Amino acid sequence: AASEDGEDEDEDDEPPKGRRAANKKKAAQADEEDSDDDIPQRRCNEAVNHLMFCLSGDDSKSDEEEESMSEGEMAKLMEEVEEKKKLIANIRNKPWRMRRRLKVLKEAQQFVDKFEGALGKGKGRKLYAYKVMMMKKWIKFQRDFENFRTSCIPWERKIKEVESHFGSSVASYFIFLRWMYGMNLVLFSLTFGLVVIPEVLMGLPYGSIPRKTVPRDEQATAMDYSVLMDFNGYCKYSVLFYGYYNNQRTIGLLKFRLPLSYLLVGIGTFGYSLMVVIRTMAKNADVGGGDGEDNEFTFAWKMFTSWDYLIGNAETADNKYASITTSFKESIVDEQENQKDENIHLRRFLRVLANFLITCTLGGSGYLIYFVVKRSQEFANMDNLSWYEKNELEIIMSLLGLVGPMLFETIAELEEYHPRIALKWQLGRIFALFLGNLYTFLLALFDEVNSKLEEEDSIKNASIWFVKEYYANYSANNPNDTGTPPPIDPADIIRGPCWETTVGIEFVKLTISDIQVTYLTILIGDFLRALIVRFLNYCWCWDLEAGWPSYGEFDISGNVLGLVFNQGMIWMGAFYAPGLLGINVLRLLTSMYYQCWAVMACNVPHERVFKASKSNNFYMGLLLLILFLSLLPVVYTIMSLPPSFDCGPFSGKERMFDVIMETIDLDLPAFMGTLFGYVANPGLIIPAVLLMVLAIYYLNSVSEAYKNANMELKKKMQMVSILCVQVHNNCPGACDSSARPQGTWTSTWPTRARQGSRATP
Amino acid sequence: MGGTSSKLPKDLLSEYQELTFLTKQEILMAHKIFSELQDRENGPYSSRVSMEKVLTLPELKSNPFRKRICHVFSTSDMKDGSLSFEDFLDLLSAFSDSATLEIKSHYAFRIFDFDDDGTLDARDLEKLVNSLTGETDDTRLTAEEMRQLISNILEESDIDKDGTVNLSEFQHVISRSPDFVSSFKIVL
To answer: Does Transmembrane helix appear among the keywords (chain A) (predicted)?
Structure first.
């Protein structure tokens, strides 16, 4: 058996048998001596009995039972071998020295090797040995795979460098950025592989059908740089946008069903994103610790957990010392300041005023966007527009996104909240601003879509009439030629307005201008500012570096919100512009390098401590909300709006999801069609929804019950500890003098669950 | 690298992988850095690296607890804080990303226990606060503030009211903290 000598003082794993048996013996002794007792002894007995009674609730397996006779020697041996194996697997969880772990590991491995052979005697020997070998290979494979996986993660060094200079909060932004890059890469490869590549390889080439050709009247300017920048011309009639895709039911030798694939990939994008976001949220909640009880251990946490061990830079360390000191002093003062509340009426009035001003700002920005969208619709009908007029909408939206938060911050000075609360308000307001802007933009866009839909009918008639007229003219002009007339050049056919491509173009333009504004802001706001402060400092009256404006700090929340909203726009636009995902992947890639460089070259570490971990789930929650909000418009258009008659993979159908009905009817066996018919019956769906609601209610009440049980256990623990103190105080001989409370009550307390398996002596 | 540096034998490498939370690349990197530290030792070749040399590592240089970390992880008989390669691996494993909360809190407790008596009493806490607030006078707390701070901490964490924080109380406090695992991390 493994020997657990007490050579290491970091062993808090006293053999339970010995300790508990000793306690019981001493309790028994105390009982025996009860007859010739004095009051202290009786008190001692009572305390011990009380304690044992309190602990008796979880007394599952007494030690005597563990030694009870087992079925046969084989089974007992098998048990011991399993325990040793568990020990080997968990050995790195023990806080022992390497020497000791090596020794224990070697002994355990020898034991397992020796007896595993013995167990293998008899009928199942070969099978058993084979199983053991496969298990070993599997473990080794898992370990190698883990090693390989960690080596594949990009930008580790870069992020680590940022972390050592700026602390873990700034680095958390870059980790978030990297995570987004990974998710977008998967979405891009899905779309690219299942929609774009099939159309390019197996579909009809450019110029063969009207939807894939630039119309005759646009051909002269189709290659111009300004036209391409607007995503008209050759860009508009390329794989980037919805309008290019053909509505043939199957294409190529493999009979690839492109329209079905397009629809499913569009929905699958949302499904995958949802799964990934929720999985990450669950993982964060698991590790970090959930809600509530911020104030339980403020001082202790500040003391024990505030130092960031990743800091490797002297200047950052100095900053950290200063901020820790400030934070200590603040909390000491905070305790006393909770009573003081001067002039509560003035403060309330100022807060109401501030909220009113901010609501006005939000309303004003919403109206401004609506107005600008209306104007851009008018501009669309005019010619000879200046560059500003063409891009007015995108410029205004980006400017609002820049100016709004600054305005909010200035107004918020009126409110005088605690900085953490003020930050929450600020984030909420910026979120409301972005959301309002996005939805106003969408509403205005929908207006445009509806007007295009109205045009469509008349254009459809016009285009059919045009074709008829062409053939009539041809026959009239060439009476000798009796064969079929040559087909019309695709460039000449009258085109429908194709609202989906328009929507796609709008989203792409918005994304591009967002990228430009972000990069310009970093260049001017951080880089230029740093240059000016550094070089103008030599000939300026006051110290530019210490006073105003000094170097910028990295705005974590602003950047994260920008990233989240950008992702929302991508999700909305990806269905109408499959190329948008590629653009976003490129954007995230360059952002990573650009922002890493900018933060290292132009920013200084924060003066105030910023808690990163609690905010992680907050940002994930925002992302989830944005995901749902961007799902709504897309689902609405798929379900209710009719697709254009002459462009896109769904042209000619009543609704976009008709392609699924068609597939079920034509491709799947007959019974599946009837099955889906039954499943879609409201009589089945309503009970299913009711069932889900009941399940949610049940899970909710179960979690309430767990919370209550938690509170009870906590109270019990406090009571037990107080009783232990009484035992300790009243019974001078009951506890070993060298063993502190950690030796007595903690080893018998159910930490069994915490500390994996123990070595059986 | 000098002539005394050797490659890590394969079986030792796989054993270390079993025994620590580190991946293969991290163990090899640790071996490389440790060999470099050994080469810079003056004097005869020994398997231990003195504390001064270890403290030149950039990851430890700015850490206020660097000396305590070396003392806690050192298994040297002379109690001089020198580290062997296995001690070094123990250190990196406890501070790695995948180490469990129990391991981290266990070692954090020992690092904060300045007098090595198995509990955090008021003197340990005072030294802890002084390390956290830096060396210069204008960042230190006054005696009154220090007293107030320590009494607040003991009120929060000392469950059995014996005036000290023992390992279990410390682990109870730490396990509720959302920041501890992410900040108690050193990566080479």
So the answer is: yes
Same domain for A190 and A60: no
Could A741 and B160 be called an inter-chain contact, meaning their C-beta atoms sit closer than 8 Å? Answer: yes
User: 3-class SS at A537?
Assistant: helix
Report the distance separating Cα B106 and Cα B101, nearest Å.
8
SS (H, E, C) A200-269: HHHCCCCCCCHHHCCCHHHHHHCCCHHHHHCCCHHHCCCCCCHHHCCCCCCECCCCECHHHHHHHHHHHH
Restricting to B residues 19-78, those with a Cβ less than 8 Å away from any Cβ of A are 19-21, 23-25, 58-59, 61-65, 75
Kindly compute the dihedral angle of the four CA atoms of residues A644, A645, A651, A653, in this order, to the nearest 10 degrees: 100
Domain limits for position A751: 681-761
C-alpha distances (whole Å) from A181 to each of A17, A174, A596, B162 are 54, 10, 15, 52
Three-class secondary structure of residue B75 per DSSP:
coil
Contacts of B126 in chain A (CB under 8 A): none
Q: Are B159 and B172 in contact (CB under 8 A)?
A: yes
Half-sphere exposure of B81 (CA within 13 A, CB side): 14
Does any domain span residue A81?
A: yes
Residue A321 inside a domain? The answer is no
| Residues of chain B numbered 167-186 and touching chain A (CB < 8 Å) | 167-168, 170, 173-174, 176-186
- The three-class DSSP label of residue A337 is helix
Q: Are residues A167 and A147 in the same domain?
A: no
pTM of the predicted structure, to 2 decimals: 0.73
Of residues A701 and A681, more confidence is placed in A701
Answer yes or no: are the C-beta atoms of B5 and B35 closer than 8 Å.
yes
Q: How far is A551 from A470, CA to CA, in rounded Å?
A: 69
Element holding B84 (H helix, E strand) = strand B83-84
Identify the bridge partners of residue A283 per DSSP, sorted by sequence position.
none
Q: How far apart are the first and last CA of chain A?
A: 6
pLDDT per residue as tens digits for the range A42-97: 776 777 777 776 666 544 444 433 334 445 777 788 888 888 888 887 888 888 88
- B102/A742 touch (CB, cutoff 8 Å), yes or no: no
A746 contacts B141? CB cut-off 8 A: no
Same domain, A435 and A546: yes
- Separation between Cα atoms, residue A214 and residue A207, nearest integer Å: 8
**Chain A within 8 Å of B166 (Cβ-Cβ)?**
yes
Whether ipTM tops 0.95, in short, is: no
The domain total for chain A is 4
